[in-house]
Design brief:
elongated, single chain, nine-stranded mixed β-sheet, alpha+beta, signal, 1 helix
Amino acid sequence: MKTFPKIAAVVAVAGAAVFASVLPGSADVAAQSPSLGAVRVESPAILEARGAAVRVSVTIVCPAGYPTSVNLTVTQRSGGGVATGSDYKSPVTCTGTAQTIELTPTANGEAFRRGTAFASASMYVSGPGYVTDDREIEIVR
């Protein structure tokens, strides 16, 4: 029974060697293919005009020179109802580095208030496609 651990160790080492030999090829493909990029909703958001809107920072990264559009929806339970609002910015020209965009969704239904809300951002980069970010954010004054 002592041979089983030895065999398992040999198989693990051999498997790791095969896996490691594939990694350099994968890195070359990634360097040749344009990345989709990334989008992130930042927290906190700032309450505007007594809850009529919220100002939200969204950070994007996408391949330099690509045109993109950024959409944001914020939803919050407010009193006995729901506050929701959307905003978008288009076109945005990607720089290849992190860019912060300010979006200001206006409230539909109830007014926004201080507290927790749900934010959903999406970015469409012409060519590579969509990336999204969904998260809870804090709304402050």
